[in-house]
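re: the backbone from monday

yeah here it is again, tokenized this time
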């Protein structure tokens, strides 16, 4: 499939203002991929909106992995975070939004593979490995290119459309986590996705290196998150130390004192320091994320707090949403419950009231990772 297939959005036929809801074809792919695009009279904007909403309805927690600078290892962090979540038993997808450097196909060993288009949309490539119950689902522009070395020279309108396809046209299926490998910077792609995902469970992670030149850019990304009220779970410091292969001693290429002070000032946690490691680099090149290839190794241990932070955030979000729903239900049903209690025999009323209070105060249970494997 050629990327040249993307075309500026067709405004579609005039809509009947009396229609309560525009008709939809029910197809799981975008109109740009549709053999009937030329002749279809349905409202294409409605189709795209429905498509995106239906995908997002099946996704629990979205994690955007950001970096305000290229070359800090953001894609490595994304791949290993996704693999670490999968190793915990979750159903995980990886959306490669890095248009100019779509590397997730390499990190998951599917370079050169191409996407298939079905009635339900574009099929993500599945990555299976020992230690994960549910294959990771990977969606990337790399699967849609005619050649892997074709450069992407798109104007913003095309990039905007691709971000919609990435979420809406890939058949993600039900997922506990969707990890999005963002392009570096706070440009068009980030703003498009932030707008698209507003109102859904989205949190951000920031990958950086402990260099002053990266720090300055990273703080811009922090500010973006704060201004957009996008929860920032913390910073992942990549290339944060080296173990000498000869003597086993550790040393740091970049002093991290400035980074630590700057993060403290903007009240952002440093979640992890990932070492600069040949095993990490070769795992990425071989398409075997190190957290799966060597789960007991120092690199996997370094990633563990990042995985834990994402799980904790998702559980907290679930618990808050469930508590909110329960309170809403209780408040709607309040009058009826009071009437029912008034009907109860007087000697049982206190006990019933206590049982009801226990029920409403019971914290809802966050998702159980083991449940995903059952
Ligand atoms: S052009 Fe779009 S709305 Fe029409 S049938 Fe194809 S996918 Fe559906």
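seq for it, each position gets an aa:
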């Amino acid at each position: 499939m050629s990327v040249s297939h993307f075309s500026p959005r067709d405004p579609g036929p005039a809509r009947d203002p009396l229609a309560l809801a525009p008709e939809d074809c029910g197809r799981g792919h975008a109109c740009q991929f549709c053999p009937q695009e030329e002749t279809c009279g349905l409202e294409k904007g409605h189709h795209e909106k429905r498509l995106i909403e239906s995908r997002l309805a099946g996704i629990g927690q979205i994690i955007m992995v950001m970096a305000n600078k290229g070359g800090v290892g953001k894609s490595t962090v994304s791949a290993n975070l996704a693999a670490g979540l999968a190793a915990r038993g979750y159903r995980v997808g990886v959306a490669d939004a890095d248009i100019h450097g779509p590397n997730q196909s390499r990190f998951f060993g599917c370079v050169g593979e191409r996407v298939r288009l079905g009635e339900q949309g574009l099929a993500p490539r599945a990555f299976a490995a020992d230690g994960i119950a549910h294959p990771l689902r990977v969606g990337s522009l790399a699967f849609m290119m005619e050649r892997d070395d074709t450069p992407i020279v798109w104007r913003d309108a095309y990039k905007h459309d691709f971000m919609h396809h990435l979420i809406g046209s890939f058949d993600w299926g039900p997922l506990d986590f969707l990890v999005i490998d963002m392009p570096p910077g706070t440009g068009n792609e980030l703003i498009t996705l932030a707008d698209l995902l507003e109102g859904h469970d989205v949190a951000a992670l920031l990958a950086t290196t402990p260099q002053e030149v990266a720090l300055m850019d990273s703080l811009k990304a922090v500010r973006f998150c704060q201004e957009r009220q996008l929860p920032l779970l913390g910073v992942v410091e990549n290339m944060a130390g080296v173990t000498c292969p000869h003597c086993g001693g550790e040393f740091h290429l970049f002093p991290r004192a400035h980074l630590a002070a700057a993060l403290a000032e903007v009240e952002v946690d440093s979640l992890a320091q990932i070492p600069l490691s040949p095993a990490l680099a070769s795992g990425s090149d071989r398409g075997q994320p190190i957290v799966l290839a060597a789960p007991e190794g120092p690199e996997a241990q370094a990633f563990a707090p990042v995985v834990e932070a994402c799980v904790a955030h998702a559980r907290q979000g679930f618990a808050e949403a469930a508590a909110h729903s329960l309170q809403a239900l209780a408040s709607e049903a309040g009058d009826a419950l009071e009437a029912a209690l008034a009907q109860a025999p007087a000697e049982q009323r206190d006990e019933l009231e206590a049982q009801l209070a226990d029920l409403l105060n019971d914290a809802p249970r966050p998702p159980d990772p083991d449940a995903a494997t059952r």
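Confidence is low (pLDDT under 50) at residues 1-13, 15-19. Residues 25, 27, 31, 34, 36-37, 40, 42, 44, 47 surround iron/sulfur cluster (CB under 6 Å).
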